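the two lines:
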Amino acid sequence: MAAVQVSEAEKVYIIHGVRDDLRLDGRGCEDYRHMEIETDVVSNTDGSAKISLGHTDVLVGVKAEIGKPKAMVPDEGYLEFFVDCSANATPEFEGRGGEELGVELSNTLCKVFNNRHSVDLRSLCICPGENCWVLYVDVLLLQCDGNLFDAISIAIKAALFNTRIPKVHISEDEEGVKEIELSDDPYDCMRLNVENVPCIVTLCKIGHRHVVDATLQEKACSVASLLISVTHRGTVTCVRKMGGGSLDPESIFEMTEAGKRVGKALHVPLMELLQKEESLGKKRQKVGFLG
Amino acid sequence: MLKSKTFVKKTRAGGVLKIVREHYLRDDICCGSEVCKERKDEAPVLQEDACIESNLCSYPHYLIPDTNVVLHQIDILEDPLIRNVIILQTVLQEVRHRSAPAYKRIKDAIHEKEKHFYTFTNEHHRETFIEREPGESANDRNDRAIRVAAKWYADHLAKKTNGGSLKVVLLTDDRANKEKAEQYGLIVYRCEEYIKSLIGNPELVDRLALQPDDQNEITDSKLLFPEHLPLSRIQSGIKNGVLLQGTFHANRDNYLEGTVFINREGEDINEVLLQGLQNLNRAVHQDVVAVELFPKERWVAPSSVVLQDDSPNDEDAEEDETENKRVVKSENVLKPTGRVVGIIKRNWRPYCGMLSQSMIKEVTGFNYKVNKVFFLHKKQTNIYIHVKKLRHPIKFHGVLYQDFNAYNLLLIFSQRIDMVPELLSSNLCSLRSNVERLAFSCIWEMNHNAEIIKTHFTKSVINSKASLTYAEAQMRIDDTTMNDDITKSLRGLNRLAKILKGRRTEKGALTLSSPEVRFHMDSETHDPIDLQTKELKETNSMVEEFMLLANISVAQKIYDEFSECALLRKHPSPPPSNYDILIKAAKSRLDSAKALADSLNNATVENFPYFNTLLRILATRCMMQAVYFCSGMDSDFHHYGLASPIYTHFTSPIRRYADIIVHRLLAVAINADSTYPELMDKHKQSSLCNNLNYRHKMAQYAQRASVAFHTQLFFKNKGIINEEGFILFVRKNAIIILIPKFGMEGAVFFDNKDKPSPRLIFDSEGPTLKVEQHTFRMFDKVKVTISLDASNIQHQRIRMALIEPVIPGVSVPVPESEPEAKKPKLDC
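prediction for all of em together
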C-alpha cells in the first residue's frame, strides 16, 4: 500500500496527539474524515457509487448478469468482487504493482459481503439450480489516502442500494423448455435489500489507543490494525487483524467495542443520505467526477 | 444537450445486457414549413397554403398521422391528393420495426417532391423529446411523443403566422390516443372520419382499409389449424424418435386423406396415414413433413368415401371428418395413423388455384382480406411436359442431332407433342414405302412354330415395300382375293404372332382391359364431336407381339453385355392384398399371373358379355405400376403383366427417352458405337430411371386430365344423356359407374347436403351398399343420366344421377334427352 515517509519526531507527535484524542487534522479518535457519496454515476452499470473520504477516491460499479448458481447453494445467487488498483491512485500500482493488493482486497470483500447474512442472496435466484443473478462488483481505486477498506465498503453498500436488476420471469413451453423473458419496461426493476449490508471499520492501534479512518501518516505510526465489519444493528460479521505488530486481547476487545459503536453510527447517516438522494429522482444534479 | 437512452436487451446466449446509448438533442431542427422563415439552409417542404376541401377542416392544415394510420392506411397516404403530411421520426421508426413493406412505401412517398411529405426528427428536437415515464409502456410513450410533437407544431405554427389559420391535424384510429389528444388541445380526427369529410374525392373512401371496429369486430378467433412446431423442436423430435419425417402424398380420391412415406432406414413403420384437414395441417403434396404417430387405439383404416372438394366452407369438411372417424374399425385394415406437426420443406411450385369469395358479407367498403385459397386438385387442365436437357446428342439411325430438348411423347387428344423434331419423328425415322431409311434392326430366324433359332442385331438400311395403316393391313389379311407378296408375308407374320401370343398367354401374360377413349374432333373448332372407346384390330396385336419380342430380345442382349447398367423395365407382382377388391367382386382365387389370366379367361357370365371386360378393368386397377430400373440396382427383373423374365423398351426411340438409352447400349453391345461414362454409371442410370418413371406418371395424369376435360367439353355440347352403365366400385356414400359406351367413369353420390340423406347401409365385405330398399352390388347394371354441372363456372364437372333402379327420393325421373340443349338442366 501506498506508504509515506514519516520521521521519528513526526511519529512521536502523532502518537502523543492520539493519546490526547487529538489528531493531526483536528479529529477525535473515532471521527471520520469528510465523506462525499454519489450514486448512479456510471450509466452502463446496474448500480454504481463514488465515494471520496478525505483524499481517498473509490468508484464501485455493480453489473448483474445471469449465471448458474453454485451447486452447494442452488437457490442463491452470488457476488463476485474485483478490485482494480489503477496507477492513477498511486505510481506504485503501475504495471502489476497493484495486483497483490487488489487480490487481497477482493478476497476480504468477498468474505465480508458474499454471504446470506449480509445480502439477501435468495432474492438473486431466478430458477433454482438453473439460473441466478451474479452481481459483479467492480471496485476502482482512483486515489489512495488511507482507509481503503472503509471507503470501499461504504461505496459497495451505496452501489448495491443503487442497483436495479431488470425483472425477468420464466416462461415454460409445452416441452418444459424454460425460457427467460425480460420485462420490456426499463423501470420494472428489482431492488436489493441493503439493510443488513455491513460496513467495514478499520481501527489502527497507535500507541496505546486506536483510531478510525487513519490517514497514511497515522498508518505509518501503527503496528497493527483491526478490520471489523459491522451491520446497522452493531453485529460484527467479520474481524481481521492486519499489520505486522501484535495486539493484546484486551485491546482487541476494546477495539471491537469501538468498531461496533462507530459502525452503528456510520450506518444511520449513510442510509439517510442514500434515501434522500433517491427521493430527488431526476431533479438531482449530477456531480460526477469533476465535482 | 446530451441525454442517454438506456434499455435492457437479452443476448442470444441467454444473458441480459444493459445498453446505454447517447442521445443528442438539438435546438436547430427545422419545422419544414414555408411559413417558418427562420432557417433557409434547406428548402421548406410543407406548403403555406396547404388546402384540401374538407367538411371538418376548412382551414389550411398539415396532417400528422400516427403509427397505426401509416401502417394500415398507407393506400390513402400514397394517394396524390393527400399532401402536406408531417411524418414524425417516432412514427417512422415504429413503422420500420413493424412492417418493412409499409416502411418502404412511406419512404417512397417522402421522397416524392409533389407530395410534400416532411420527416420531422422529433426525437432529437429539444422541445419534443420525451423520456419514458415509470409505468409507461413503449407504445404509450410513443403516442405521447406524437402528441407532444403535434402540440409543438400547433404552437409553433400559430407563433410563426401570428395566430393565422394554418393548423395541424392529428390523424389517429386509436381511441385512447384520440381522447388524450383532445384533452391536450389538439385537433384530432379518426382517419375514416377525415377521409369521408373530403369534398369531391369520394374515390379515396374506397381506398380506406377496413378497421375492425370495437362494435362490429369480426370475431374470427376460431383456429383453423393447429400451429406448426418450430424447426428446432421438429429436429429434436425426429432425433429422439417422437416424430417421423417423410414425404407427404395427398390422396387423389379423397382430399381429406393423405399418406406420409417415411424414408428412413430401419424404421418399422414406413407409411403413416393422415385423415382429416386438421391432421393434414396444411401439408401440400410432396412436402417433406414431420408427423406424430397416434397411439394404436386411434389408428384407422383408409376410408372408402369418395370426397370431392366442392364444399367451400369448413363446416362441411368437419362433418365429413367426423364421418370418416365413424368408419367401422376392423382390426386387420388399420394403418399407422398420425398427424402433421410441422413442415420441414415445402414443395414449392406454381399452383393453379382460385380465390373464393369470403363468406362474411361486408356492408361497406372493399374487403381486401382473402379468406381462403382453394387448390384445384382435379380439374386442372395444365399440361406438364417433361423436358430433359441432353448433354449427349441423340445418336441413332446414323443421324446426329446436337444438344436439343427431349420430351417424352404426350398424347393429348390427338395432338402429339413430340419428343424429337418433326423431321425426325415423322419423316426420317419412319419407314416409308420405297424410300431408303437407316434403321436399327432386330432380326430373328424362326421356325414354323415361332421358335427363335437365332437372333441378330444390326444397323441397317431399309427400303420398305409398303407402308400400311393397321386397318389397311387388316383388310389385306382378311381379303382372301389378295395374294401378292406383301399380303402373304403379312399372313405369315400374323400366324407367327398368334403362336407367340398363345405361348405368352400360356405363360400367364395378362390381357387387361382399360377402356381407351378416342375423341372425334371437329376439324375447325377442335371441339370433340363424338367419343368412343378405341377398337383393337388383329393387326394391332400382330405388331404388338413382334414389338414385345424385340423388346425382350434386346433386354436379354443388353443385360448379357452390361449386367450392371442395363436399362430394363419391370412390372412387380402385386401384393395379394391388392386383389381384395377383385376377389370380393369375382370371388376368384389368384396367386400367380397365370392363375389370374386363366381365371379371367374363364370368367364369363351368360347374358352378360361385358362382365369379362369389367373384371379385366378391375384387375388392371389391382396392378402395380411398371417401372424402369437399372439392372445393377435391382434383383427382381420380372415383368408380371407380360409374364416375361426380362423386358425393356426398345421399339419407340422417337417417343420414349428410355428407348434411346437402350439403343445406345445395344449399339455398344454390337460394336456399332462407343460408350460414354454416364451410360456406364449405374447410379446415374438409376436416377435417370427414377426421373423417367416420375415423368411417365405425370404424363399419365396429364393425359387423364386431358381426357376428363374433353369428356366434359363433349357433354357440354351434348346436353343431357341417358346411358347404361355398370357399377365398378361400391363406396360408402357413392357408387362408381362405368359407362362402356364412352369409356368413362363417374360417381353417383347418395348423400346430399341439401336434402336429408337416404338410409345408407354399407357392407365392406360384399361390398354392397343398401340404399333405402335397394342393394347395390358390384357389376350391377344401372341407368344414369349424365349432364354437365356448370353451376360453378370455375369448377365444372360431369354429374351423374341415377335413373334405374328407381329408388324414391334418390333416383331422378328420366329427363328428356335433349341432345341440342344449350343449357343443361341441373339435377340435385
